[in-house]
Structure formats: C-alpha cells, structure tokens
C-alpha cells in the first residue's frame, strides 16, 4: 500500500465534513473581526465536547511519552483552563466518550491534530482581536507549538496499512467530525 495514500484518502473522505465544520456559525465567527469573548467561549464548549468524546481513546492508544514516534498529548486541561478563564466555571458533559479501536483512533487523531494545527491561525487572530494570550484564555489554540501535528503526519506516513485498516482509519476520522457537527447542531 502506498504510504502517502492514507493522507490523500483521509483528506478526500473528510473534505465535505471539514467544510461543514468551518461553515458552522459557532466556528466561523472565530474568524470574524467582530468575534467576542462569548463567541469564543461557545466555540471552546463545542470543541470540548469533541475532546471529551475522543481524548480517553486517544490517550489509551497513543499516550506514551516513551514512544519513539507519535504521542498524543492530552488537551482537555488547556480547553478547561480557557473555558474557566472566560466563564469562571467548568462545564460538565453528557456525551459518552467514544470507544474506538486502534485504527479508528488513528482517524480520530487525524481530526484532532488537524484542529490543533488550525489553532495556529486562530491563536494569532484571537490574540489580536480579543487581546488574549496563553495565560488568559488562549492555551488550547496555542497547542500547535508542541509540534504534535507534524509528528503525527510523519508517523502516519510510515505505517504499512492494509485496505481494511485504512477503512477503519477513515471511519474514525468521519466519526470524529460527526461528533463535532452533531454537538454544534444539538447545542443550539
């Protein structure tokens, strides 16, 4: 199997879902020059739902600092700290964490690491527009500085994958996008 083919397949399989997420009002407002702290808080709460659902599985499969390759670094603390900074409280979740198999979790990591890289653009914009920094509500979107996306991509491209394993990876990615989309639609 072509090692680089998995990235192409993931991009193709998730392109419309990615576009849908970017077009959600709660997410698209983050790029507006008129974004407010309330807009930012709502987006963080939506993202928190995604990470609440995925982080236990990602930590189970990929949180090992002794790995010589990709290691998932938990982000819930950064999300919770930002939410607490903006609202003064920590939300509770009613969504059940997803139980994904190893290859599905790779797909979930693709989505999470992509969101982390997207945070690079958002961190700069929110820093300027809302006058926020890592110490006052901008930890989560500054997570890109840890370099986990590039480690993930490098690791993913080295995997020798069978067709069924690729299918599971794509399934994990699409499921992850749908968790975010469903959460944004259901929390209106």
TrEMBL record:
SUPFAM superfamilies: Heme oxygenase-like (SSF48613)
Gene3D superfamilies attached to this UniProt entry: Heme oxygenase-like (1.20.910.10)
Keyword Metal-binding: yes
Domain of life: Bacteria
One Gene Ontology molecular-function label: heme oxygenase (decyclizing) activity
GO-annotated biological processes: heme oxidation
Keywords assigned: Heme, Iron, Metal-binding
Keyword Heme in record: yes
CDD domains tied to this protein: HemeO-bac
InterPro entries from the UniProt entry: Haem_Oase (IPR002051), Haem_Oase-like (IPR016053), Haem_Oase-like_multi-hlx (IPR016084)
This protein's name: Heme oxygenase
């Amino acid at each position: 199997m072509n090692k680089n083919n998995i990235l192409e397949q993931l991009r193709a399989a998730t392109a419309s879902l990615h576009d849908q997420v970017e077009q959600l009002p709660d997410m698209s407002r983050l790029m507006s020059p008129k974004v407010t702290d309330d807009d930012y808080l709502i987006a963080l709460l939506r993202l928190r739902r995604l990470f609440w659902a995925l982080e236990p599985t990602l930590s189970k499969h990929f949180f090992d600092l002794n790995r010589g390759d990709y290691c998932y670094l938990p982000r819930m603390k950064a999300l919770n700290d930002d939410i607490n900074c903006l609202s003064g409280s920590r939300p509770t979740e009613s969504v059940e964490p997803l139980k994904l198999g190893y290859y599905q979790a790779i797909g979930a990591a693709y989505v999470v690491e992509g969101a982390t890289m997207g945070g690079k653009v958002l961190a700069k914009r929110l820093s300027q527009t809302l006058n926020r920094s890592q110490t006052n509500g901008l930890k989560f979107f500054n997570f890109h500085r840890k370099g986990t996306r590039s480690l993930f991509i490098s690791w993913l491209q080295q995997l020798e994958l069978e067709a069924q394993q690729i299918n599971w990876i794509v399934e994990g990615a699409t499921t992850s996008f749908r968790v975010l989309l469903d959460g944004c639609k259901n929390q209106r």
